[in-house]
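Predict the assembly for these two chains.
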Amino acid sequence: MLSEGAARLREGEDVVVGVVETHGRRETEALTRPFEIIPRRVSENHGRPLSEMDIDAILARAPQLVLVDELAHSNAPGSRHPKRWQDVEELLAAGIDVYSTINIQHVESLNDVVASFTRVRVRETVPDHVLEQAEIEIVDIPPDELIERLKDGKVYVPEEASRALSHFFSKSNLSALRELALRRAAQAVDAQMLDHLRAHALGGTFAGGERVLVAVSERPEAETLVRAAKRLADALRAPWTAIHVETGRSSGFGAAERERLARTLALAAQLGGGTASVPATDVVSGLAGYARDYRATQLVLGKSSRSWWFELRHGSVVDRIVRSAEGIAVHVLPVAGQVAAGRPARRNWREGLEARPFLWSLVMVAVTVACAVGLRQLLDLNNVAMLFLLPVLAAAGRFGLRPGLFAGLISALAYNFFLLPPLYTLSISNPENVIAFFVLLIVAVVTSQLAARMRAQAELANRSARQNAALAGFAQRIADAANPDELAQAICGEIARLFNVHAMLFVPSPAGAALVAAIPVEHRPDQLDLAAANWTLEKGKPAGRGSDTLTASDWLFQPIAKGDRTLAALAVAHVEPDGAAIRSDELPLLLSLAHQSALAMDRMQLAEAMRELDVVRSRDRLRAALLSSVGHDLRTPLTTIRSAIGELGQSALAPAEAAIVDALDGEVERLDRFVGNLLDMARAQAGAITLAIEPIDLTDAVASAVHAVRKTLDGHDILLDIPPELPMVRADPQLLHHVLINLLDNAGRYAHPGTPVRIGARRGPDGLWLAIRDEGPGLPEGKETAVFETFTRFDGSDRARGGTGLGLAIARDFAAAMEVDIRAERCTDPQGARFTLSWPDRLVVRIDPEALA
Amino acid sequence: MKILVVDDEPQIRRLLGVALKRAGHEVAEAGDAASALRLARTERPAAILLDLGLPDRDGIELIPLLKADGEAALIILSARDATDEKVAALDLGADDYVTKPFDSEELLARLRTAARHAGRRGEERLSAGEIMIDLAARRVERGGEEVHLTRKEFALLAELAAHPGRVLTHGQLLRTIWGPAHEKDIEYLRVVVRNLRQKLEEDAARPSLIVNDPGVGYRLAR
């Protein structure tokens, strides 16, 4: 990295060192010497000073290339991003190239593979998408040589870790890692070649239409499945999605399970996959349904770790999926339960045990026993047995599976004890009654299971109904808002109410994120919150607690975005400090509410913009009407006066009268020019110029302008120096005409009588210029820009002759409207002024000579 | 020559009347579009001076109606100095366009030119300065010597010569010579004009034969 960077530095590029770990080795330190090193930012953590790359300093320094060692590094707590690769992404986004280094074991999708043979799980990983953007260069050293270097102490290994790592650096491990690295690089080259093939339609074989779906659960092994699916999808060059099927079971998840599930889905998103959470009564139907809708061609599953007993009763999930998913290749991966698998389920079982339902079941059975004993005299024993179905059904229906089973069991026992002869023993004398006992037990089991399933379905339906109701109510409440403030209040209020959280809403403003609504209303964000809000508004990504940026905030900031415009940032926080901002299973609902808010805010902004536009339009209409009517009302009397003077001039006049008529004629012409200039000025200042750009031959433009101001230029020779082969320029003919008229008028007015006015044009290296040079008093020193200001005439100098003071200001404004640069210069030898118009290269016309034959 | 003056300002009508009568013309006056159309039909004027700002109708709409009615030369008088309006008026068939306030002498000169050529094609042969153009023989001479022109150059010169003194808009010229597909390719026109000037003008930097009207078009000066 360092030698490559040094090569670029020698080529004249602006290269700096962002962070390089020299580990005190002189060899490495020597390599960093040629570079400018951006000092690290030092922070304090529990009294220990920590230094990290100073990303803000690098962004401010804005070099072409920055060298950043150890891409997989984890930043100190309190840094902007938890990981260095995120810093690098921000640098890349700011247009700064980055050279970095990474060891192969830090690649996210290879994490499991590496762990499988080294027995060491690497904690610091870099998502594959970061590498996919990068040009990869392998630093390849044969294992023996590396081990040699290790022994010589040429490779840095932290003291305390050296013993633990000695196993890691065995020859077999190093060989395997080397192979992985080479394969990964080959894959990258392969991908680039495919991109090239595709871009240039060279044909070639690649899989089309493949879609990979991976089913994940709350179990820790699910991350392995996600990584495997990512590798499969990469190999197939297919899009992929991780899906979690929410069944009744999911609602029983504890915080730890939910957390793990959210992490698994986040991992999938980080690796570039889609994520989905689908409610369904059971895993198989949910999975098969989604796979059909998604048109998945590959399905990745973990081998079920349920007991053989469970599978015997329910059939293996895998088997049923294979049967119901036709046309889909099913990959079943063995997942080694690394962390005690199955434990969480048992804990759930205990958690589910509340005493009250069982007590109620017991009471119901007791009441039934009492009734049955009473009715025993009137009814046949087998009919009395039917009575016991009632508490079983009631318990199963009301309290679920376990209380139902419990009620079934004690019903059977009570029936035996209280009703079957011999009474008050648990033995049964009549074999027929044995059957009755077991039938009661079986009926209890079956009905309670049925009732429990119905209950689960009803609950699921309830939950979607609640979500739909929440969405619909939300949509309605925010639709009622009449202005942006009310809308912001409504969004905050609804979110706070629905999730029982605190909420804030920020919108972008010139001074950064601005708070527009908060629940509770008196809440104000602190510095950290504002930083996170700014981040979210700028990047359109979540920030704060539960995201991967600025995690120290108590709030989770979600972008409210329409398309790629971030309209606002919504912040939510648990009512208790320290709680997770929002439960991970509520996140999808929050996201869809954010989406709805975005639609509403966008609609509101559009409406506002329309209203503003209407105001501007009517103002423009008024202005245009005013201009045209003033123009008309001034010009009509001028026309009459001018014609009248013209008529007078035609009649035979005495010399004195002729002189008066002549003076009148001159003044009317001046007044006319002044009116014209005033209107032009008003047009320019009102921004009411509409451009009609076309290619213009400067010979034409100059000739017309010279013709138009021939009276002012009377007495001056016009010396033209415009090469016939000069390219044309793009400009508005009318505006350019006015610019030239004003410049020529200025020259004609100030040039000493009898001196020539020179007009020259040339093609320059980066455009084309046209200059008008007069021989007059010139410009006062330092007033080269001021000369273009409105009503500037230099008192005390000769530059005060009969001008309106508007001409040059109009020339400047019109030139600016056409993106033409205008400049005034003092000249000596002979003294005078030069005004230059410069067209940038892109406004110079190139013509295809073919069309002219 | 009978001339119809259409303008809603009585002062301007009166002064134009004085100037025109002095130059020996008969004058009819109209203050609005309706009477203008009526008079154009009954008086059969040789030329019409039309102000675009009329009380009852936009003058632009009158142009095709007046042109359809007869052979009269049509000159637009307007206080509006907008290029697109000029182009629209000329494209609709107006023979010339004069911006207020104007010089009465110049107006009379333009009127003469327009009236001379209105309603008929130009002569087969015409000369301007030392240039002689023979449209029938497709021959152009400068000071008695033949000048060789490319096809496009000749086509452009012939089109301008067919309406001497009249401004032909960029659109009109491009449509006729390059075809409707090239209506907007003004740079073609500019290059051919430049070449023609090199071959025909005395000083190509100060064109006096093919004259530019900024943003509107070209005319052949005589």
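Helices of chain B lie at 10-22, 33-43, 59-69, 83-91, 104-117, 151-162, 170-178, 186-200. The first strand of chain B starts at residue 2 and ends at 6.
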